[in-house]
């Protein structure tokens, strides 16, 4: 009721409204009195959450904003059903755990009444995707394409991006940009060089996981191949020349007569142009036009004017205009740039083409024509094309192999028919094949097993066409089989197949062409006696057939192949050594390879050029054991000689000088050296008589001769003749004796000599009194050794846990690494250690900033952590400065850790897990 008729005045009243009235009846009595009342509750506040985290997020901090429909509003919040607390917008929560989170907010009126609850729910997921690359190219690959398959192993909602880094070795590496991709992912048109493929997975929460794979498209690829009777040769794309197989007459050209089941390089030159492998000799031209031959020299077929066997190339005359050479059974023919044709060697059937049957030990000219285009020497006959397209043959004509329609021997060239469109000819053992410019293929001669390819086994004295196809590109006639490529790049063989030389996976003869696989990128084929070799567009080289002399070149004698197997110059390693910034390894074929920092010539290849890939040191194939020191390298050879190279500031090369050398220099003239160990600036080695010798730096007595005087020549350590194994560290040396006792000498401030003191010693001091020590390894400032009971002990500096006793306390006496008694071999590095168990598992401990522990992390460990998640058959480990090399029992080579100087040998970045460098 409002008797005055005045409108009420509404003013604030707490959180509500107040109404003020002035009744007239009371105005006379109390004119200043006013009555105030709070309006009854009109409604509750409404709160709205305006913004918050995404429904799925990888962020552990959440910011939530909210608003109220009243100008002044009290709010309360809670998270995950916790107690309500006063709050204001925005509300921030930090360090949230993974999982689903539920935020609630409400308004509160003056009477404590709460409005409706507003909520926001989201999920935090901080787990990164785990990316697995399931398909990738090998570490060293000759393919110009790469296929990758990958997946997330712990998430179902991953999307992927890919990037590829490339380094061509010129010093300007290219870093690839990320692009969306899917598995499988194909990369094509790759140039030679080093690559790293990166795949990045992003899950729905925005978490990212990355995996990568490093590989190299090798510069080394094959340009051409030639198959002889029991050996084969090939020229690489870099111009180097390699041979493999039987070597009884030195036909491999490696200065030995040892059969080789893997390719061996012929010298070190890289300018070879064309090669031809005969029955037991080989000839090749070089870019400058000179001609060289080696191997069996019966009948003077090497053309050097003597009957002497040659185990390495000798030049044929002094001419430097030879164009193309072809070796037969006992004779050789070659063209010169002026178009003349010359032959030499056996001439019993007139195969030299000079009109006589007289042997010639120097080249004699075939007629006076100077338009010869291409020549092919068979076993007892020769054929050649001329520039006008005519084809001519001479020599033995048994079974009609000359193609003139008769079986009469010819001492001078006779024309094959009258056609003048012949393109290329190949003379085999008893038959001949040739292509014509129209793409047809023709064969003639003996045909017992169908090697003429005409579907019969009938001899032919005149050319018969092989099928009706008109796209043949190149043909090679072997002993009793023939192979040829077609313009589409496919490859076909026919004839005798008792050793699988047709490459179709069977041993069934075929009188018609059968295709070799389904590949369509074959470029050149060469049919040998009972084997075949061929190249493909990607530079790879493949061989098949008999392998009794290792002529297939895949590393074994025997193991005939009825299908193509690829050759590679990568070797299986049998021993490896890691140093501060370079590594070296001896392959099973006796070759020596080094890589990494090459300052002062420590790689021994005659240069100071750093090598991110293994490079062969010389062409010798008789290296026995190598040891990479801090800056220098030493190695023994099978004849017992000892060689060192690199810097020689303190005489550590042992050649009596302090002159650096980028090539190996011999340590004295002794040939009874047994094992060598190159240390920081000194070297020690044992001899077969059990004596121990050291040379180089000696400021801390590390030469063990009782003095501190440097020596550039070996000095004997004591007079004992029972030293078994020696290990040279940075400034101290340790060695075992045949009695099983262990002795150390040199620098000792950290107790690395293990004699319980920190006193340097210029003479050997015994480590304890035990006489069951098996193998010792001296590191930078610590030492580790195994005992015959397979326990493992370490001593010296322990700042990073490198002693493996779960502490970081130095020890001047041996402390045991765990309680295991199955340790087989140990290697002490700079601040870390690695060892192999009898079961073949590999373990490392100590400093890990560069991933040198190989467990996929960069976290130090004072106790052993396994390299890899599963036990593998590790054979040998060598701990370097801040990286490692290791060998698998299969001869594969692996590296991990710091790679700042290319010491991992795979031209990639640092690796926290083993990466394959050389595969078997």
Structure, described:
- This protein is mainly β.
- Helix content is 0%, strand content 47%.
- The protein is built from one helix and 75 strands.
- The strands form 19 sheets. A five-stranded mixed beta sheet has the order 5-11-10-7-8, with no helix packed on it. Strands 13-19-18-15-16 form a five-stranded mixed beta sheet, with no helix packed on it. Strands 20-21-22-23 form a four-stranded antiparallel beta sheet, with no helix packed on it.
- A hairpin with a 3-residue loop joins strand 20 (222-227) and strand 21 (231-236).
- The chain is flat.
- The model is unreliable at 1-41 and 903-909 (pLDDT under 50).
Structure summarized in a few sentences:
With 920 residues, this protein is mainly β. Helix content is 0%, strand content 47%.
Shape: flat
Q: Count every helix, treating DSSP H or I runs of 4 or more residues as helices.
A: 1
State the end-to-end distance: 107 Å
- Low-pLDDT runs of 5+ residues are 1-41, 903-909
Proportion of residues in β-strands: over 45%
Q: Look at the structure and give the mean pLDDT.
A: 88
Could you give the order of strands across the largest sheet? 5-11-10-7-8
Strand-pairing-aware structural class: mainly beta
Rg result: 41 Å
Oligomer: single chain
Number of DSSP strands?
75
- Helix fraction, binned, reads under 10%
| Biggest sheet descriptor | 5 strands, mixed
């Amino acid at each position: 009721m409002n008797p005055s008729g005045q409108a009420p005045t509404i003013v604030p009243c707490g959180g509500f409204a107040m109404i003020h009235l002035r009744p007239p009846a009371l105005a006379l009595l109390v004119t200043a009195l006013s009555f105030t009342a709070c309006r009854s509750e009109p409604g509750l506040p409404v709160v709205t959450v305006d913004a918050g985290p995404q429904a799925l997020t990888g962020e552990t901090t959440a910011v939530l904003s909210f608003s109220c429909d009243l100008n002044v509003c009290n709010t309360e919040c809670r998270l995950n059903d916790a107690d309500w607390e006063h709050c204001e917008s925005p509300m921030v929560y930090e360090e949230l755990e993974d999982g689903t989170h539920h935020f609630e907010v409400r308004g509160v009126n003056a009477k404590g009444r709460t409005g409706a609850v507003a909520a926001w729910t989201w999920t935090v997921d901080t787990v990164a995707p785990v990316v697995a690359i399931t398909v990738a190219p090998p570490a060293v690959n000759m393919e110009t394409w790469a296929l990758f398959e990958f997946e997330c192993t712990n998430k179902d909602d991953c999307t992927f991006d890919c990037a590829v880094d490339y380094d061509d070795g010129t010093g300007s590496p290219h870093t690839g940009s990320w692009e969306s991709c899917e598995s499988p992912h194909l990369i094509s048109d790759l140039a030679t060089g080093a690559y790293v493929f990166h795949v990045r997975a992003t899950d729905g929460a925005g978490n990212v996981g990355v995996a990568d794979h490093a590989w190299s498209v090798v510069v080394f690829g094959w340009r051409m191949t030639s198959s002889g009777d029991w050996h084969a040769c090939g020229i690489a794309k870099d111009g180097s020349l390699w041979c493999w197989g039987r070597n009884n007459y030195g036909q491999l050209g490696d200065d030995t007569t040892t059969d080789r089941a893997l390719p061996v390089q012929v010298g070190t030159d890289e300018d070879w142009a064309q090669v031809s492998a005969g029955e037991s000799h080989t000839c090749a031209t070089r870019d400058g036009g000179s001609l060289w031959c080696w191997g069996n020299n019966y009948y003077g077929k090497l053309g050097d004017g003597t009957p002497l066997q040659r185990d390495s190339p000798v030049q044929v005359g002094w001419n430097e205009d030879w164009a193309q050479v072809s070796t037969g059974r006992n004779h050789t023919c070659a063209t010169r740039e002026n178009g003349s044709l010359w032959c030499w060697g056996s001439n019993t059937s007139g195969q030299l083409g000079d009109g006589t049957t007289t042997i010639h030990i120097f080249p004699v000219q075939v007629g006076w024509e100077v338009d010869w285009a291409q020549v092919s020497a068979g076993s007892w006959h020769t054929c050649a094309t001329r520039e006008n397209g005519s084809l001519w043959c001479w020599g033995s004509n048994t079974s009609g192999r000359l193609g003139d329609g008769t079986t009469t021997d010819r001492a001078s060239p006779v024309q094959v028919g009258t056609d003048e469109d012949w393109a290329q000819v190949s003379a085999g053992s008893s038959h001949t094949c040739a292509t014509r410019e129209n793409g047809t293929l023709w064969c003639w001669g003996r045909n017992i097993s169908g090697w003429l390819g005409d579907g019969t086994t009938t001899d032919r004295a005149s050319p018969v066409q092989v099928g009706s196809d008109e796209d043949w590109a190149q043909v090679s006639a072997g002993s009793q089989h023939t192979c040829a490529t077609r313009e589409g790049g496919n490859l076909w063989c026919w004839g005798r197949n008792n050793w699988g030389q047709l490459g179709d996976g069977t041993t069934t003869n075929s009188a018609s062409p059968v295709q070799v696989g389904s590949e369509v990128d074959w470029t050149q084929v060469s049919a040998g006696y009972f084997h075949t070799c061929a190249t493909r567009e990607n530079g790879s080289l493949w061989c098949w057939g008999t392998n009794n002399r290792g002529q297939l070149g895949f590393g074994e004698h025997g193991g005939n192949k009825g299908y193509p197997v690829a050759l590679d110059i990568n070797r299986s390693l049998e021993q490896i050594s890691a140093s501060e910034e370079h590594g070296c390894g001896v392959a099973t074929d006796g070759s020596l390879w080094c890589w990494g920092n090459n300052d002062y010539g420590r790689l021994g290849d005659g240069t100071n050029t750093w090598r991110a890939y293994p490079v062969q040191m010389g062409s010798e194939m008789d290296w026995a054991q190598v040891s990479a020191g801090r800056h220098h390298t030493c190695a023994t050879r099978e004849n017992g000689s000892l060689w060192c190279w690199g810097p020689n500031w303190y005489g550590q090369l042992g050649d009596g000088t302090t002159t650096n050398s980028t090539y190996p220099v011999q340590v004295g003239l002794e040939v009874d050296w047994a094992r060598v160990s190159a240390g920081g600036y000194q070297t020690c080695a044992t001899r077969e008589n059990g004596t121990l010798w050291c040379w180089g730096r000696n400021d801390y007595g590390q030469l063990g001769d009782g003095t501190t005087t440097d020596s550039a020549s070996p000095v004997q350590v004591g007079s004992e003749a029972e030293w078994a194994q020696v290990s040279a560290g940075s400034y101290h040396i340790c060695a075992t004796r045949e009695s099983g006792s262990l002795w150390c000498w040199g620098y000792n401030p950290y107790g690395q000599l293990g004699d319980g003191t920190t006193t340097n010693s210029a003479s050997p001091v015994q480590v304890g009194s035990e006489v069951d020590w098996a193998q010792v390894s001296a590191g930078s400032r610590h030492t580790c050794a195994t005992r015959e009971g397979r326990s493992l002990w370490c001593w010296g500096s322990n700042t990073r846990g490198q002693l493996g006793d779960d502490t970081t306390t130095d020890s001047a006496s041996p402390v045991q690494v765990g309680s295991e008694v199955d340790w087989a071999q140990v290697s002490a590095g700079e601040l870390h250690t690695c060892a192999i168990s009898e079961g073949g598992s590999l373990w490392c401990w100590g400093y890990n900033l560069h991933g040198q522990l190989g467990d996929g992390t960069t976290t130090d460990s004072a106790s052993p952590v396994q390299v890899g998640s599963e036990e593998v058959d590790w054979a040998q480990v060598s701990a370097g400065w801040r990286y490692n090399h290791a060998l698998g029992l299969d001869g594969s080579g692996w590296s991990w850790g710091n790679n700042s100087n290319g010491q991992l040998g795979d031209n990639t970045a640092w690796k926290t897990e083993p990466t394959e460098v050389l595969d078997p």
